[in-house]
């Protein structure tokens, strides 16, 4: 850029100073009434071209609320690694997504601010899977939250997701038929049995068995049929967290009441019919709690996710779910489904 261009880029008041120093009577085309605004703009465009626009401010929201969170936004420390159990190491964040017809899915699981600062592993787990092909296929999405203080919580949460995923995958024909035909009683009973078995199945590696029910605080799932003629969305699981629906710009809390079980667990089930324009959100307590208790966060996400024709990309979804709130520093895991 020339010296002249540099002056234009940083400060165009020198043109006005030139007018003031040299006077306006001798300037060709100067307005007789002494008003220089229009003439100034004409001369500047002739010499320099159109003005350089100022950069647009970033739309990124780092936190909501009147105060920033206690911890830094970026990870600080990694967990201590055992050289004999490197398979137990988990990345700070996992991100996934897919699009099937009118369904757009986004999924993320990330360490909370507290765990990042302390160098603790992510205790939440996420599993995304497609079982079957064509219109008979089902999407299975599972979110598990481990007990925060338990050392084996990350592995137990991972194992619980995979155990339940395997059980669901082996029963896809029956589950798909029950969903399509509206057999909610049979569907609920079958999913209750599968969940109870997966939740209580121990993990064994030849040394230390880990029972998921001892270390997993929640295990929540969605089943989404890919049949375009079936709008039924099935939620089931155990423990805390959230199930929300964004419809017409407003959040609806769809979390069903828990039903006591003989083993002390509390099963939750809900089958709902989606509408075009809905956004369904399944999440762990780390996102559900601030979403319920902080209006600024729910309003921010409603603005960001309220248009079904423009679901966010993966990086935008990651940034949205990472919007921080003071007082909430737990892991966050979320699955969102846009109905196009």
TrEMBL record:
<protein>
    <submittedName>
        <fullName>Protein phosphatase 2C domain-containing protein</fullName>
    </submittedName>
</protein>
<dbReference type="Pfam" id="PF13672">
    <property type="entry name" value="PP2C_2"/>
</dbReference>
<dbReference type="InterPro" id="IPR036457">
    <property type="entry name" value="PPM-type-like_dom_sf"/>
</dbReference>
<feature type="domain" description="PPM-type phosphatase">
    <location>
        <begin position="111"/>
        <end position="312"/>
    </location>
</feature>
<dbReference type="InterPro" id="IPR001932">
    <property type="entry name" value="PPM-type_phosphatase-like_dom"/>
</dbReference>
């Amino acid at each position: 850029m020339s010296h002249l261009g540099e002056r234009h880029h940083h400060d165009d008041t020198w043109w006005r100073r030139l007018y003031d120093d040299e006077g306006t009577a001798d300037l060709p085309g100067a307005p007789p009434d002494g008003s220089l605004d229009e003439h100034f703009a004409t001369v500047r465009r002739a010499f320099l071209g159109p003005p350089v626009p100022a950069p647009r401010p970033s739309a990124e929201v780092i936190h909501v609320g009147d105060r920033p969170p206690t911890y830094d936004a970026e990870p600080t420390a990694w967990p201590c690694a055992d050289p004999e159990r490197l398979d137990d190491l988990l990345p700070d964040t996992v991100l996934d997504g897919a699009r099937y017809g009118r369904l757009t899915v986004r999924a993320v699981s990330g360490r909370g601010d507290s765990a990042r600062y302390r160098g603790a592993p992510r205790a939440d787990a996420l599993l995304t899977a497609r079982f079957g092909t064509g219109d008979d296929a089902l999407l299975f999405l599972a979110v598990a939250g481990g007990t925060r203080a338990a050392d084996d919580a990350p592995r137990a949460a991972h194992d619980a997701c995979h155990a339940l995923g395997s059980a669901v995958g082996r029963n896809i024909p029956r589950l798909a038929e029950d969903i399509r035909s509206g057999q909610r009683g049979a569907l609920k009973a079958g999913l209750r049995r599968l969940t109870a078995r997966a939740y209580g199945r121990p993990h064994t590696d030849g040394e230390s068995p880990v029972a998921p029910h001892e270390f997993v605080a929640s295990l929540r799932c969605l089943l989404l049929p890919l049949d375009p003629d079936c709008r039924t969305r099935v939620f089931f699981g155990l423990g805390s967290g959230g199930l929300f629906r964004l419809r017409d710009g407003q959040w609806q809390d769809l979390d069903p009441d828990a039903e006591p079980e003989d083993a002390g667990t509390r099963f939750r089930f809900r089958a709902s019919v989606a509408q075009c324009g809905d956004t369904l959100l399944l999440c762990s307590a780390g996102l559900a709690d601030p979403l319920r208790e902080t209006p600024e966060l729910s309003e921010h996400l409603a603005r960001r996710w309220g248009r079904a024709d423009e679901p966010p990309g993966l990086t935008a979804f990651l940034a949205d779910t990472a919007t921080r709130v003071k007082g909430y520093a737990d892991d966050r895991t979320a699955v969102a489904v846009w109905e196009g």
